[in-house]
Structures are given as structure tokens and as C-alpha cells.
Write a structure and sequence with these properties.
InterPro entries: NAD(P)-bd_dom_sf, Sc_DH/Rdtase_CS, SDR, SDR_fam. This is Glucose 1-dehydrogenase. α2 links the parallel β2 and β3. The chain is α/β, with parallel strands linked by helices. A seven-stranded parallel beta sheet has the order 3-2-1-4-5-6-7, sandwiched between helices. The protein is globular.
Length: 258
């Protein structure tokens, strides 16, 4: 636990399920104020908010399309209206629609880029603008993937966005380090989430996945949440521009075909 996080305000995009939900709930344990963003899963977002409140934090849910400036501005404004500050931004929202690259529709390519990468840029820009104007030494955390370094077939759009997040993280970290604003990334490996459930449900598929993980176990959202809490805490005050891989060692096998 990190006592200095208590009372600080965090925005978590895609907070209704999976990794985003895990991070938001961990922030609740840290007694933080959390803006839980969702697009379609209002019920999941409300469950996240209730879990945060039960653990001593405060929470508000907001429906927002993070690929748009309007959606991002509504998240920032909600944080200010309810809690008066933006101390932490977690760019977690993201998705992929696998397809052979020669069949990948431009519309699908664009939507994945809009949500996964452009949305992270817009949110970072708005948060940085407010932090800079108000002299807040905040923290931005991008949720990337091992696929920022490991190519994955039929996921060229997803891989491009995660590679882009790496450079977004490093460029912004360099630009705002002197102002005390830290920007980092977490790159999860295989994590059991609603969007990635087959490894737990199908024994054969799970075994194939485990062969790619040196630790021979699949991660949980709580593993990512623990890393997130540390990275935005004072314990990581001298850490910026880095990607923390939370992957059970998966990136030790970069030549494998994923």
C-alpha cells in the first residue's frame, strides 16, 4: 500500500472489466478517487465503482468514447467537477479484431488505432495540459502489451498501436520530466480477462499458451494492478519513460511465433 496516493484522483479508461477494472479497484484500496470510464458496459463500470467505494475510495462512472476529443474532455471535466484534480491518468482502453493483414478492412484498422493509440494521445494531451497549468506533478500510465516487441500474426493493427504507445510514453516522458510529470507503460503478457478467456476454458489452448510463458502460469488483472499502483506512487518517483513488462517472462522468448 502507498499512503501518499490516498485522496488523489485517477482516471482509468476502459475501467468496466479486465485489466482496467483490476487497476481501478486497486486504486480503491489505495483510498483514491477514481473516474471509471466505460463505453458500453454500464453494469460492469458500476460494479467497479461499488468495489472501489467498499474499499474506502471514491468513484464515479462516465460513459465516454475515448477515441474522441469530446469523450476525453468529459472524463477530465468529470474528474474536476467531482474531485477537483487530475493526478493520475491510466490509458487502458483498447481492443483488437484479428484478421489476415491482406483482408484487414481500413475501417477496422482505423478504429483500432483511434481507440488504442489516438485516444491515449488525446487523453495524455488533456491531462498534461491541466497538470502543467496547475503545477501538478502527476503521472500518466499507458497499458501496452508484450506485442509492442513481439509481432503477432493477424494483429498488425494491434501491434502497431502498442509499438506506438511505447514511443508515445518515451517522448512524453522526455518532454515533461523537468516538470515532474512522469509517464510510464506497463506491457502485460497473457492475462485472464473477459477479452482473453480461452486460455482458462480450453485445456489445449491453455497448454499452447503456457509453452510461451517461462513461469508456466497465466497472469491475473491483480498482477497488473499491483504494478500500476507502484508506478504511480512515490516509490517510483525516479522512474519515467520506462515500460515495465509484467508477462511471466514471455518476452524472454521473442523469437516465438505468437
Amino acid at each position: 500500500m502507498y499512503p501518499e496516493l490516498a485522496g488523489k484522483t485517477a482516471i482509468v479508461t476502459g475501467g468496466s472489466k479486465g485489466i482496467g477494472k483490476g487497476i481501478a479497484e486497486r486504486f480503491g484500496k489505495e483510498k483514491m478517487n477514481v473516474v471509471v470510464d466505460y463505453l458500453t458496459d454500464a453494469e460492469g463500470a458500476e460494479e467497479t465503482a461499488q468495489a472501489i467505494q467498499k474499499q474506502g475510495g471514491k468513484a464515479v462512472t462516465v460513459q465516454a468514447d475515448v477515441s474522441t476529443e469530446t469523450g476525453i474532455k468529459s472524463l477530465i471535466q468529470t474528474a474536476l467537477d467531482h474531485f477537483g484534480s487530475v493526478d493520475v491518468l491510466v490509458n487502458n482502453a483498447g481492443f483488437s479484431e484479428p484478421a489476415p493483414s491482406d483482408e484487414l478492412a481500413l475501417e477496422t484498422w482505423q478504429r483500432v488505432l483511434d481507440v488504442n493509440l489516438t485516444g491515449a494521445f488525446i487523453a495524455s494531451r488533456e491531462a498534461l495540459s491541466w497538470m502543467k497549468a496547475n503545477k501538478v506533478k502527476g503521472s500518466i500510465l499507458n497499458i501496452s502489451s508484450v506485442h509492442q516487441v513481439i509481432p503477432k500474426v493477424e494483429n498488425v493493427h494491434y501491434g502497431v498501436t502498442k509499438g506506438g504507445l511505447k514511443m508515445l510514453t518515451e517522448t512524453l516522458a522526455l518532454e515533461y520530466a523537468e516538470q515532474g510529470i512522469r509517464i510510464n507503460s506497463i506491457a502485460p503478457g497473457t492475462i485472464t480477462t473477459p477479452g482473453n478467456p480461452t486460455q482458462e476454458q480450453d485445456a489445449e489452448e491453455k497448454e499452447k499458451t503456457l509453452q510461451k510463458i517461462p513461469m508456466k502460469k497465466i497472469g491475473k488483472p491483480e498482477n497488473i494492478a499491483a504494478a500500476a499502483a507502484w508506478l504511480v506512487s512515490g516509490e517510483a518517483a525516479y522512474v519515467t519513460g520506462t515500460t515495465l513488462f509484467v508477462d511471466g517472462g514471455m518476452t524472454l522468448y521473442p523469437s516465438q511465433l505468437f
